[in-house]
Amino acid sequence: MNADIIRLWPEPLAQIDDDSLLATYEFPEGPWLRMNFVSSIDGAATRDGRSGGLGGDGDGRLFELLRRQADVILVGGGTVRTEGYGAMRLANDAVAWRRDHGMEEQPVLALVSGSLDLDPKSDVFTEAPVRPIIYTVSTAPAERREALSAVADIVPAGTEHLDPWLVREDLAARGLVHIHSEGGPSLFGSFIVAGAVDEICLTVAATLEAGDARRIANSAQALPTGMRIAAVLKCEDELFLRCMHTATDI
Fold it and tell me: Is 127 within 8 Å of 109 (Cβ atoms)?
């Protein structure tokens, strides 16, 4: 397949190169949390249980570029298991780009897990180029906390329920202000309800799925949150939307 991406709005641009894509999605100064998701036209967040089945070549290209800009990649523990995450290690060209832009060579991987149902022997930890962070609740099982503390920093961010703002505040205190989150739906939902999402980058896959797949955001509560479109791009039949909270500007 062809992974050429064109920008439709603002300022249409045909066959946009990587530098122009990165400029289109540039983080603003200061703390910022971006969510990145793919969805079918009818709202399915997964195919056969995984989001990776929905995205095409254009989505894959953009997925890798968006990671390049981030200080930290934030992801839920369930998503790590379901999507088969390995060590968070960027390719050499991304490392060179980060070095040229005064960034650390690799982003930090931060996981969110109230249960700490994570394998400390997983490549996510044992092959990580930078020590990961795990945000959890103070009531998480002590034996799992002890096992994982050998391979990651364990940070309580709530008692029984994780507080998204405590996560953001701790990351900012570590100098990790540009947060790129890859979900999943429960994490996204909790951050929406907390008012902690600045931006979403959404790939709309040209497919109808039906079935019982989840939406990209799930929570027990609802909090309607106004967003504005900042950019629209396209690759073949995939559509890419960059949307920001209406209270923010760059």
Answer: no
> Could you tell me if residue 200 is left (phi over 0), alpha (psi between -120 and 50 degrees) or otherwise beta?
beta
- Provide the strand spans (E) within 5-141: 6-9, 32-40, 72-76, 108-112, 133-136
pTM of the model: 0.95
| Confidence at 1, pLDDT banded by 50, 70, 90 | very low
Domain 29-245: give its CATH superfamily. Dihydrofolate Reductase, subunit A (3.40.430.10)
Q: Which amino acid is at 179?
A: I
The CA distance from 110 to 119, in Å, is 15
**CA-based max dimension of the chain:** 54
Per-residue pLDDT tens digits for 55-64: 899 999 999 9
